[in-house]
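Hi everyone,

Forwarding the result from last night's run.
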Amino acid sequence: GHNFNSAAGTYWQPLDDPASSAEAYMRAGHSFINDGLWKNAGAAFASAASKYKVLGDTVSSTEAYMRAGDFYIKASEWGKAIESFYAITSSTVNKMPFSTAAAYYGKAYAHRQVGQMADADSALADANNLLYQYFGDGATGSTLSECFLKSVRSLETGVCHFYMPKFDAMSDDELLDYIKVFRDDTLYAVFALLRR
């Protein structure tokens, strides 16, 4: 396990049951976030992810590893961020393509921060290839643009294009914060960033 300080002491305690341990680690991670302890938050989420993995809960494991990677990046713990994103890309490729692609992008960012440009380029290529394989097979469109437009229409928000006015007033930093949480309009925020 990881050494956590008393900031999350009321939430974290060693438990034999993987499900209870995973929940305790998640609570500890959130407590560390509230205290601004990014590295500890990353460690707590990584521990939760490993417990969820033991339970066979791919969705929760992926979410926890993604959080771990994000907070390791925030703490400039590049190696640990890469490890967290690798745990996702090595186990969820065919089950959760969006999460896997996001993890590849996280790996690329972390690799760039430590000057590993070839690894960063490889991770970006893997993300792009995965998205093309998943969406470019003709079932959803033959080009990436067609795929995204079909996904926009499938949201049934009454919008059939890549534009949503509410994102015009947001700064780049606000948009980057906005897309960290998945919402039904996250795709529009991504396109707003791409247009700038």
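The CA atoms of residues 46 and 166 lie 35 Å apart.

Cheers,
N.
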